[in-house]
């Protein structure tokens, strides 16, 4: 079993995504400085912290020059050792992405090496654009630890509510030989007590991540008894197809494919740690193009009623970023995990 480590390098502590709003050109320097500091804090070796700063600087500069409502998201990789820089904006989009990714191309009289340099330097790079906005993901993996099909097929972000300093949300991932398991947790309320509940759930998850989902939720329930409790949702996607969901409280699951939203599920009424009902497992069929999205109520669930073709065809890292950027309730902590099929990913892929 391969778990996600925490912010201090040990399983159990949730990652919190750093956000830099690009509302002024000074944000370019801020994004670069914070990317370098994050890489150093998480022990990326050698020149990788400087490379992380370059990725953040180039992508933020592109937002500052060309986009509206741009944001840079910085975090460790959801799986594996490394860092990713995610960006989103609200338009006007890129008319010819292939041309913009060519070294030397420029529309502003500058050197024009930005997006081409990002694609060349990143372990994994993905870019999608339409008139309503552009999404990018640049991943920088430590040598030998990233670029796997499992890591390429997952996207996850966890953001603080505006004005808060402690995050009551969290997520965790575990990979076994036959499946990937994701947990999303939402501690009741806000602040330190909610964060304490979320951390207790994540620690319990890493002790029992490969157990059957009812046993997993029962273990979380026991671990949360000394806390204010939490909503929890666990999703398991088998390598050979098929999935399971088990949850309690306000965690949502949506199954998507390129033709639309195929299934919506919610946790059973109750609170893990207080009055959780007997865990009920939902067995779900999946196809070769199914993507699962698991999120807390910090993401407005109305996005899934009629998602457009652009959203439905996004790879998991960009889908999670799009939901955070376009459908987040900023007064609440927000967490989203997107899991796609590994069969259609390639190691170290540099995607347009």
The CATH architecture of the largest domain can be named as 4-Layer Sandwich
Assigned CATH superfamily of the largest domain: PPM-type phosphatase domain
The residue fraction in helices comes out at 25-40%
Which strand order do you get reading across the main beta sheet?
Answer: 1-8-9-10-11-14
CATH C-level class of the largest domain: Alpha Beta
- Assign an overall shape: globular
Question: Could you give the distance between the termini?
Answer: 32 Å
Brief account:
The chain has 352 residues and is of the alpha+beta class.
Overview of the structural elements:
Residues 149-341 form the PPM-type phosphatase domain. InterPro entries: HATPase_C_sf, HATPase_dom, PPM-type-like_dom_sf, PPM-type_phosphatase-like_dom, Ptase_RsbX. This is Anti-sigma regulatory factor. It comes from Streptomyces mashuensis. With 352 residues, the chain is an alpha+beta fold. It folds into two domains: 15-141, 2-Layer Sandwich (Heat Shock Protein 90), CATH 3.30.565; 149-344, PPM-type phosphatase domain (Phosphatase 2c, domain 1, 4-Layer Sandwich). Helices cover 27% and strands 29% of the residues. The chain has helices at residues 26-41, 48-66, 97-100, 114-121, 149-152, 191-208, 213-223, 309-312, 316-327; strands at 2-3, 18-22, 70-76, 82-88, 124-130, 133-141, 154-159, 169-175, 179-187, 230-238, 243-248, 252-257, 260-266, 282-284, 291-295, 334-339. The strands form three sheets. Strands 1-8-9-10-11-14 form a six-stranded antiparallel sheet. The chain has a five-stranded antiparallel sheet with strand order 2-3-4-6-5, with helices on both faces. A hairpin with a 2-residue loop joins β5 (124-130) and β6 (133-141). α1 packs antiparallel against α2 (48-66), α2 runs antiparallel to α4 (114-121) and α6 packs across α7 (213-223). The longest helix is centred in the N-terminal third of the chain and has 19 residues, at 48-66. The chain is globular and about 55 Å long. The two termini are 32 Å apart. 54% of the residues are buried. Mean pLDDT is 88; it is low at 1-12, 109-113 and 343-349.
């Amino acid at each position: 079993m391969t778990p996600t480590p925490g912010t201090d390098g040990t399983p159990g502590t949730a990652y919190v995504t750093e956000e830099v709003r690009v509302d002024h050109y000074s944000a370019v320097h801020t994004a670069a400085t914070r990317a370098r500091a994050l890489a150093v804090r998480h022990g990326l070796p050698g020149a990788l912290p400087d490379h992380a700063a370059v990725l953040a600087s180039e992508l933020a500069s592109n937002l500052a020059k060309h986009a509206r409502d741009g944001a840079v998201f910085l975090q460790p990789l959801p799986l594996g050792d490394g860092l990713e820089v995610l960006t989103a904006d609200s338009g006007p989009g890129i008319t010819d992405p292939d041309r913009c990714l060519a070294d030397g191309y420029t529309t502003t009289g500058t050197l024009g090496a930005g997006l081409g340099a990002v694609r060349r330097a990143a372990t994994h790079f993905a870019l999608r654009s339409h008139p309503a906005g552009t999404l990018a993901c640049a991943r920088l993996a430590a040598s030998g630890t990233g670029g796997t099909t499992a890591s390429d097929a997952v996207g996850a972000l966890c953001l603080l509510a505006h004005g808060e300093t402690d995050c009551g949300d969290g997520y965790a991932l575990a990979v076994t030989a036959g499946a990937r398991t994701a947990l999303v947790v939402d501690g009741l309320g806000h602040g330190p007590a909610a964060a304490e509940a979320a951390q207790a759930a994540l620690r319990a998850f890493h002790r029992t991540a490969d157990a059957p989902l009812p046993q997993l939720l029962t273990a979380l329930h026991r671990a949360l008894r000394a806390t204010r409790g939490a909503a929890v949702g666990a999703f398991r996607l088998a390598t050979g197809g098929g999935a399971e969901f088990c949850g309690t409280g306000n965690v949502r699951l949506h199954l998507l494919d390129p033709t639309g939203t195929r299934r919506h599920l919610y946790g059973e009424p109750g609170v893990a740690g207080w009055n959780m009902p007997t865990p009920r497992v939902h067995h779900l069929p999946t196809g070769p193009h199914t993507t699962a999205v698991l999120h807390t109520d910090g993401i407005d669930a109305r996005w899934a009623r009629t998602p457009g073709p652009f959203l439905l065809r996004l790879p998991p890292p960009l889908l999670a970023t799009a939901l955070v950027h376009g459908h987040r309730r900023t007064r609440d902590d927000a967490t989203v995990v997107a899991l796609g099929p590994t069969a259609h990913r390639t190691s170290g892929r540099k995607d347009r």
